[in-house]
Amino acid sequence: MPTFPFSAIVGQDEMRQALLIAAVDPAVGGVLVFGDRGTGKSTAIRALAALLPPMAAVIGCPYNCDPASPADLCPHCAAGGPRKSQKKPVPVVDLPLGATEDRVVGTLDLERALSAGVKAFEPGLLARANRGFLYIDEVNLLEDHLVDLLLDVAASGVNTVEREGLSLRHPARFVLVGSGNPEEGELRPQLLDRFGLACEVATPTDIATRIAVVRARDAYERNPDGFCAAHAKDDAAIRKRIEAARKRLPSVTVPDAALEQAARLCLALGTDGLRGELTLMRTARALAALDGATTVTDDHLRRIAPAALRHRLRRNPLDESGSTVRVERALAEVFA
Ligand SMILES: [Zn+2]
To answer: If you measure from the C-alpha of residue 334 to the centroid of ligand 1, how many angstroms do you get, rounded to a whole number?
Structure first.
């Protein structure tokens, strides 16, 4: 069955915006998606990956090395001669909840160690996710040390393995997408803060949207190929928008006035450190690039602020309102 088209997703605007931003600038950090089950979180990620332009990857390389980027080659490709490549779809790797650290980072290939007596590395999920997406359903149920490790690798783009007599570094640039249900355990604030964006998804409550969701799902399941063909043009338009935004991104400017507003907003919310401002700046820049703009404006900041800040708020015992309400209140104050 072909992947559900991204352009056919009804509603979930905030999640779609966050994913598009991460596709334009993976450096904005991971995306957290909180909300009910069955709201199409995993569908949206697969849909986005499927519409991205296929990537050139070295044939036979377990890390999907990019032949055009010699600085990022794995030890295997770096040592080899001329490299042949082929186009591959952008990977979406699922990290199952029970995954061991070995399975995630990779481990000693025991079979080869025993049969041939060589210390070979068996790449893990981080290798497969290179240049794509790593998706964790119910990230709040994953052990803290694994989440920590994933965030470290996602931030550096390199997986460093030093274990069982192995010493190896390989490229691992991916967008970390974690979904979770806030009622089933919480992420530590220190981990929350390291995700770039956090969005909330909910089952739609208005009748018209519910009908549209059900109709789209039904049409897709009855005739997947026809449904995808009907949305191919819209998906292609989104692909072009992402490609154009990636090209434009380095030249998008962030005026001091925008940074001042970002600082005011973070001060009004009492976020810790400067990560809030940094994320606001980076994500607003990617959003401006997606819009075809050359400069970040207040409008970009306002549109991205809830997703960039809601997971960085300190608990305020005197204010029991939800984090989204608090961000919206601060926005109204700062942009009055
Ligand atoms: Zn390689």
So the answer is: 48
Interval 66-79 mean pLDDT: 86
The arithmetic mean of pLDDT across residues 306-324, rounded, is: 81
Q: How far is the CA of 96 from the centre of ligand 1 (A)?
A: 25
Mean pLDDT over residues 61-85, rounded?
85
Angle at 191 between CA 188 and CA 196, to 5 degrees: 135
What pLDDT does 319 receive?
66
Ligand 1 centroid to Cα of residue 5, in Å, is: 30
CA of 61 to the centre of ligand 1 (A): 5
Q: The dihedral of CA 241, 244, 248, 250: what is its sign?
A: positive
Q: Whose CA is closest to 256, among 296, 290, 196, 287? A: 296
Q: Give residue 62 CA to ligand 1 midpoint distance, Å.
A: 6
What amino acid positions are annotated as catalytic residues? 275
> How many helices (H) and strands (E) in the chain?
14, 11
Residue 29 pLDDT grade (very low, low, confident, very high; cuts 50, 70, 90): confident
pLDDT at 79 over 90: no
Rounded distance, CA 5 to CA 227, Å? Answer: 8
How would CATH label the architecture of 252-334?
Orthogonal Bundle (1.10)
Are 248 and 295 in contact by the 8 Å Cβ rule? The answer is no
Q: What ranges do the domains of the chain cover?
A: 6-54+89-201, 252-334
pTM score, whole prediction: 0.91
When the candidates are 3.40.50.11260, 3.40.50.300, 3.40.980.10, 3.40.50.2000, the CATH number that belongs to 6-54+89-201 is: 3.40.50.300
